[in-house]
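User: I'm preparing a small set of examples for a lab meeting where we compare how different chains pack in three dimensions. I only have the primary sequence for this one, and I'd like the structure in token form so I can line it up with the others. Please keep the answer compact; I'll paste it straight into my notes.
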Amino acid sequence: MNERATILLLFTSSILNILFFLFGIFFLLKKGGFQYLSKKVYRKKSEKEYYDPYYLHKKSQFELLPKSDFDIIFLGDSLTEEGQWSELLENPNIKNRGIGGDTTDLILNRLDTILASQPQKVFLMVGINDLLGIGKAVKTIEQIILVYSAILAEFQNKLPNTEVFIQSVLPVNNKTTRYWQDNNNILQLNLHLENLAKEFSYQYIDVYSHLSDSAHKLDICYTEDGLHLNGRGYLKWKKAIEKYVNDPCTNVSENISTEEIFTEC
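Assistant: Understood. Below is the structure token output for the 265-residue chain.
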């Protein structure tokens, strides 16, 4: 009788362990898989130091790269980082300074390198990771705007001759994404960003509407994971900003009609 009870106890314990393991895997996937796990492992030591080796390596590289007042800086998170901007916009002055996982706090933390270059233009897109809680706790829109304002104040005080362009945060598609962000939150954030642009006398660019479908979600033909963009998505983004990037007399593309075909679903 005791032997049967022991076997039953071991069996029950094994089943519970398996269920807990499966629940843990399910929770991890819902939160973003191993990327989420890595962000939990590498946390901030303080408000101004972030212990993600990838972030620190990219930041240190940007600090050492050549700087020029002809630079056109693209600043942001993975959405910016993954764009081949100098080729897309046929402009060798473009420097991609995006880092995957970046938040408003982290942008502010590495802003000195951008300020030191005294660039001609800055195109900024950041905020989605703040809403998702990547790198730290989920932020409210008010908390995001507070840090965003600090970034713009730095630009205004230390880059008086630089044109700054505030790009809207992009939509997500909750049918394919694992992030489950409410697009209404993103729309509200963008409304605040537009007001912030007016406050600082900077140009606001609505990229959101170029990539959203009739339900205000990221159009499925521009994404594979519901958050990041494929090639068609970057062509749409390009068309939304190219007139601000290149001078009016610059021949930005000779294949506009072809691009229009390829960016349609």
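A couple of notes for your slides: The chain has a mean pLDDT of 83. The longest strand covers residues 72-76.

User: Perfect, thanks.
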